[in-house]
Amino acid sequence: MLKDELPCIITKELPGPKAAQVIKRRAASVPDAIRCIYPCVIEKAQGAIIEDPDGNRFLDWVGGVGVLNVGHSHPALVKAVQEQAEKYFHGMFNIVTHEGYVSLAEKLGARVPVRGEHNKVMFANSGAEADENAVKIAKAFTGRSNIIVMSGAFHGRTLLTMAMTSKKAYAKGQGQLPGGIFRAEFPYLYRRPEGMSEAGAIPYYVKKITDVFEECAEASSIAAVVIEPVQGEGGFIPAPIEYVQAIRKICDENGILLVADEVQCGYGRSGRLFASEYWKDAGCAPDIIASAKSIAGGVPLSAVIARDEIMDSVPGGVIGGTYGGNALACAAGLKVLDVIDEEKLLDRANEIGAKCLSRFSKWKEKYECVGDVRGLGAMIGIEFVKSKASKEPAPQLVSSIIQYAASRGLLMENAGTYNNVIRFLAPLVMTDAQLEAGLNIYEEAIAHCSK
C-alpha cells in the first residue's frame, strides 16, 4: 500500500513531465502571491506519502503545515465523510441543528484543558477565524478593547490576524491595520540577551508584558493575552512553563483572559491532545483555546472553546458563520478523535519526537551550521546559523537544504523570524522505516549544502 512505501524519485528531473504540465497551468491561472517552491504535484496520498502523476513518491514532513497529524486519506476518515455525504453535506447551524456539530462540541468541550467546570464550543473554518473569534469572545466577556500578542507570533491573514501576526511581510501593501493590538517580546531563549542565563531570562521577558501596561495601554483596558504554546511560524519555540505561570498570574491580577492559540501545536503534535495540557498540569491553564489544522484531518474546520460564562457573554449574532461546523467537517472531526485514541497517536508523537530529538542533537554536535534544536513532542525545529559563535541566521542554507531534500523525495518547510528554521510536521502515522529514510535524506542534505 502507498502508506507503507518509501520516498522514491523515478523521473530524471523534478517536476516530471506530467507534473510540470500541471505546474505550468497553475502559473497561468493562480496568483503568484500564492507561492510554491516545491516540484511536487499531488496525484494521490496515504499516510505520510504523496505520489505525483509521474509516479514519484515524496515523504511528506510538512503535512499540509500541521493539518495531517492522522495522515493523508486515513481510511476511517474517508469512510466517515462518505457516510455523512450520503445523508447531507451541510445545514447552517443557525437554521438547522445537526447532531455532528453537537457531538463534536460535547467531546471537545470535555477534553480541552481550559479553566472552568463546563465548556462550550463554536466552530469556524480556519485557524485565522478561530483566533479572530477568540478575540471577539474575550472582548465581549471583559468589556475591554485591547489585546496583547507576542513577537514572533503568527495568527493568520485576515485583517485582524494580520495585525496580530508579528512578521509584517504577511501584511505587505495592506495599508493601515486595526489598532488596540500591543506586542510583548516572546521568550526566544536561544536569542536571549548575551550573558543572560535561561533562568534569568524569564523575569526579563515577563517584564515585557508589564511594560505594555506602562508604555502602551493600562492593564484595565486589556481583554486578553494571546500566546502560542509553541510558536509555529515564529520558529518552533516553546513558551517556557515558568513564563506562562507568571503571565497567568498577571492576567488573574488584572482581569485579563489568557488565550492559547493551538492552531498548529494542537491535536497531538505536542504529545498531548493540546499543548496547553502542560500548562494546566503546572496550574496555569488558559481561559480560551483556539484550534484548527489537524482537527478534521484536512477538511476545513476550526474551533474556539471556553467555559460557559465566557462563551455565553457574547451578544447574539456577533459570532457564527455560514460554513462553521459543516456536517462533513464535523464527521471527520469526530473520527479524528477516535483515530488519535485508538492508534495511540499521542504516545506515537512522543516516540517520534524522542527519536528526532536524539538524531537532531547529534547533528548539533556534528555540524557547525546547526545552532539550536528545540520543540515539544513531535513538533521540533532546527535553527540553522552561519556559525555557532555568531548565531547569524542562515536562511539561504535552509532554502538549499529544503530544495536538495525535495529532489531526493523529502518535503520539509522553513519557519522562523529569520526564515532559518526547518520545522518537523510529519504525520504521526508515519512508519519507522519512513522516519529513518527521512532522517537520512535530511542529514545528507545538511552535509551536502553546508560544505
Automatic annotation (TrEMBL):
Database matches in SUPFAM superfamilies: PLP-dependent transferases
Residues forming coiled coils: none
Homology family: Belongs to the class-III pyridoxal-phosphate-dependent aminotransferase family.
A Pfam family reported for this protein in Swiss-Prot or TrEMBL: Aminotran_3
Keyword Transmembrane listed: no
GO molecular function, one term: identical protein binding
Superkingdom in the source lineage: Bacteria
Organism: Treponema porcinum
Keywords, in A-Z order: Aminotransferase, Pyridoxal phosphate, Transferase
Cofactor(s) this protein cannot do without: pyridoxal 5'-phosphate
Stated name of the protein: 4-aminobutyrate aminotransferase / (S)-3-amino-2-methylpropionate transaminase
